[in-house]
Design a protein that fits this description.
Aminopeptidase, 190 residues, nine-stranded mixed sheet, 5 helices, single chain
Length: 190
């Protein structure tokens, strides 16, 4: 039975919660099962040792907030959405990084989870703007942010070093005041 008490917010099919060190075994198993889906875009930790280092930054660094997207029925981790490089003050911005796991891909779980994370980031983290930098050929990722209401703001050549090369990225963003599709049935949890 899923531990829904840890969910920060819930939609009809998913809840979001923070990473824990205890999630390492499931997270890394899902990452290994999803290698084909993730390549060449994403390289989440696939071993317990690297997961621990990855999770530590999301758990302990105040400039990051990591969220696991978990299926409400089973509690299974369907994906993850991280808000990185959080800056407060006049900027109040963060950069998104995310990935679905293979068993959850194409089921709309990440769209629902992203809606919950956006609400949490704007209301609880008091951010004004979230950005997503996406390689142009990553159609699934572009579709995800487009469905969530992000706008394309530009193109950055040689933006991030991924898989041994500097990769071009499209810049997508959403601000707190922009219209976005509601997550029907969403509730905040303890």
């Amino acid at each position: 039975m899923p531990d829904r008490a840890r969910h920060l917010a819930e939609g009809p099919r998913v809840g979001i919660r923070h990473f824990t060190y205890g999630d390492g075994a499931e997270f890394t198993a899902r990452a290994r099962e999803s290698r084909e889906l993730h390549r060449p875009w994403l390289f989440p930790p696939a071993e317990e040792r690297t997961y621990r280092t990855y999770a530590k930054t999301l758990i302990e660094d105040p400039a990051r907030a990591g969220f696991l997207v978990c299926e409400r029925d089973s509690g299974a981790i369907g994906g993850f959405i991280n808000v990185n490089n959080i800056v407060h003050g006049a900027f109040r911005c963060g950069a998104l990084g995310y990935g679905a796991f293979a068993h959850a891909a194409g089921r709309g779980l990440m769209s629902e989870g992203l809606g919950l994370v956006l609400t949490y980031a704007f209301e609880e983290l008091d951010l004004h703007r979230l950005e997503a930098n996406i390689q142009p050929d990553n159609a699934g990722s572009v579709a995800l942010v487009r469905r969530a209401g992000f706008r394309r703001e530009g193109f950055s050549p040689d933006f991030l070093f991924i898989d041994g090369a500097w990769r071009d990225h499209e810049r997508w963003a959403i601000t707190a005041g922009m219209a976005r599709p509601p997550v029907s049935g969403a509730t905040a949890s303890g």
